[in-house]
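Bug #77: duplicate submission created two jobs. Keeping one. Sequence:
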Amino acid sequence: MTVCLSANVNAIAELRNRRNLPWPSVIALSRLALSAGAAGITVHPRPDERHIRLSDVPEIAEMIETEFPDREFNVEGNPDARFVELVERVKPDQVTLVPDDIRQATSDHGWDIAHHREFLTDIIARIKAGGMRVSVFVNPEPGTANLAQEVGADRIEIYTGPYGGALTPDVQSRELDHVAATGRAAEAAGIGVNAGHDLTLDNLQPLVAAVPNLLEVSIGHCLTADALIYGMEGAIARYLEICDPDAGGSPTS
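Kept job's structure:
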């Protein structure tokens, strides 16, 4: 099965925001990623707008809709009132609900769905009523799959930080087993599987092999770092060779 690659452009926006200048352009680099074959773009607007700004979101949505109507826009975030109003206005293809805390440098844990069951059930129903697919960010724990299905999620996004950040083969293998078990549980629960966080050219292929029902990966930090070496087109080509090995093409293109 082909795994869709969604290019997360948060790191590009964070670099732009270091100066009060319009470059690097989030729109231009998103366009390059899509032109190179990425299946979609992911953004994660946070309340402090330290990378993606609220004003970026409708601009990216318009670019995708007019230039790449066959691609997807995924907006991640903590579903507070402002976030929900944003996605209802922009209507991305997918909304990924993440339990962020303003103090976090980056997302580092999934939902405690049982504790937030009523809240998530209501929010998911509201977003789905607007015609958007909903994914819930979860820890690599098999029990989260049934819980996500019960609150109405279409998919889970498995937090792969413990796997991606593993520094020894034994730890990496153990963490990959957790991810794979969660993927199997999602298949049994009848919901889709996405994955993201700390995925690289080195650790993506074992993940794809271990989770045959994986639908989408969202990759940003390492993709941006690789783009500094290979260019955005070259970096996308390398990831696509792993996500879609039957598509052909050279990883050095």
